[in-house]
Amino acid sequence: MIRLYTDDLNVGYGDHLIVKDLTVEIPDKKITTIIGSNGCGKSTLLKAITRIISPQSGAVVLDGKHISKENTKKLAKKMAILPQNPESASGLTVGELVSYGRFPYQKGFGRLTKKDFEVIDWALEVTGTIDFKFRSVDALSGGQRQRVWIAMALAQETEMILLDEPTTYLDMAHQLEVLELLQKLNEEQERTIVMVLHDLNQAARFADYIIALKDGEIIKAGACEEVINHHVLKKVFQIDAEIGWDPRTNKPMCITYNLIKGEEKNEQTISDRIPAGIRAYS
């Protein structure tokens, strides 16, 4: 079942088009990661999907409706977004910031209910930030702040969570904690997760579906083994990658790579010209 998709989406800033005629389906109740080099349109696509920016043409459709026409609170009950650079939370405590995730459920004067406080504490617990509840956000480290922002997105209790580079500022252990948390939410609560990641091996390890972008266009979208391979990575990143298999997940992983330079960068090998549907994995 596909609840969320884009149809011939064009997004840009002024005369500069970032995302071009992009049509993509987001698998429901799965984890999707978006990969690509800097400036390829990953964040722009995420912002368009969540209505942070409006497309120049085309549409984003959720549950059969264009999100541009959806009521804001109704949309906020269906999808939460954690942007790459969240707005400043200066002067707020951690608990106050996370409470903003309850906005779609508030009525009247916006007072928090018993259910709201329970959800806030749950979000703080699962992100390991409950001990910071009464501390100022300004006093936290970059990694701690990132986990608090994720807690706010979780407190929104949406069916879909979209995250732009959620592991930014985190060390290796905390990166793994965040990604395992998102995986747990997907597996146990069937939440649809869409996230932009730079680490190819993290993308392969945690994703059910990967979208590889270059210059605002999809080079390949599909299962991990269809995207994390020599041919796709060459086109997307201009690298010559050696691909192996992760012994713990049995998923592909990038073992090492070299930059492709000079004329070789623009060469198209015979194997590159073979249709993707019949190309052998390498």
UniProtKB/TrEMBL annotation:
Pfam families: ABC_tran. Keywords: ATP-binding, Cell membrane, Ion transport, Iron, Iron transport, Membrane, Nucleotide-binding, Transport. Residues 4-240 form the ABC transporter domain. PROSITE patterns: ABC_TRANSPORTER_1 (PS00211), ABC_TRANSPORTER_2 (PS50893). The keyword Nucleotide-binding applies. One of its GO terms (molecular function) is ATP hydrolysis activity. GO terms for biological process: iron ion transport. The keyword Magnesium does not apply. It comes from the Bacteria. It is a peripheral membrane protein. It is found in: Cell membrane. GO terms for cellular component: plasma membrane. PANTHER family: IRON(3+)-HYDROXAMATE IMPORT ATP-BINDING PROTEIN FHUC. This is Iron-enterobactin transporter ATP-binding protein.
